[in-house]
Amino acid sequence: xxxxxxNRRTDDVSVAVPTSMTMTERLLxxxxxxxxxxxxxxxxxxxxxxxxxxxxxxxxxxxDVFAAVEPELTRTECGLVWxxxxxxxxxxxxxxxxxxxxxxxxxxxxxNRLRFRGFDLAxxxxxxxxxxxxxxxxxxxxxxxxxxLEEIGDNGNSHHRCLPFYRLLxxxxxxxxxxxxxxxxxxxxxxxxxxxxxxxxxxxxxx
Length: 207
What we know:
It holds the Pfam family YfbU. By secondary structure, this protein is mainly alpha-helical. It contains ten helices and no strands.
């Protein structure tokens, strides 16, 4: 019998939802739901229902309890965001410190290719990465990205996938920075790319 005829849930609630929890975990979460039911009278039924799911161990209903909890970003994925934001910070500063003549030679088209473009919210991974970028910006760890999110519009939603290009750009950028720090140490000058290096990076997307 078709699921829609019997009002059976067909949405996928299995993603990142635990298939089992210990009794201790269930008790702790259920007690929190009971407390919320007592504190938030307008939503008491909602929280009471969630506590019942946990107390009774209805594993197929755990999706209702964890609906607002996103899947984890791995440390590797978080580290990728840090690396990208650091890269764009260095690229931006390097461009700002070019002489007027070198900036004109680089050209606005290349400069735009070296700017952070946001992430695509329609893509599952990129959407999570964008959420993390927004979190980091709110914490002022990469505060300069905040105005850039506004420039992009839609709080950084690129509306097209950017991660493949970012990965390619990062793969080209890392050897350049490694060579500069090996030669100059971790001085500020080591993180100021010259016109030739910026041009090389800007041309990455055309290889």
